[in-house]
Every structure is written in C-alpha cells, then in structure tokens.
Amino acid sequence: METEKIGMREFRENLAGYLEAGRPLAITRHGETLGFFIPAQKKSRKAEVEAMRAAARELDTMIAAWGASEDELMQEYKEIRRTSREKKRNAG
Description:
Elements: E1 4-7, H1 8-13, H2 15-21, E2 25-29, E3 32-37, H3 45-66, H4 70-91
C-alpha cells in the first residue's frame, strides 16, 4: 500500500475523514515529512460477533452459578430501569 503525502494543515482540517479512510499517510510541512499516520487494523464484523457470543456464554454461566431464574432477573432489571427513570425525572 502506497503512503500518501498530505500537508499538516490539511490533515488537521480533515482529520476525521483521514481516520475513517484507514490509509497510511506521510504528514508533511513545507514538503518535509514530519511523521506518519498508520491506522490500526479494524476488527472484522465476524470477530465482533464472536466476542459478543463469548460474552453471552460467560453471562449464561454466571447466571447459572447464581441460581437465578429468568423471571427473577427480569424483575430485577425492571426495578433498576424504574429507579433510573425516577432519578432522571427528579434531577430534571
């Protein structure tokens, strides 16, 4: 992959676009290379899905160890949400 040369001012003004593009860049000032931007590798969609599945399996294991039923968990979740809503209402 060829490194594109880009001026420091242009890089700064269009930073978000360059970060999203994910291309390596040589950052220059007055034609002299000051440094390089080398993007990190993005995680693949497949890796993200597998990470979520692994987290779900771990959560299932924890829930089973607690001995909690689905109904008990849902009731606790609803109570947490209700309390959160009340705090927001009272804060505003």
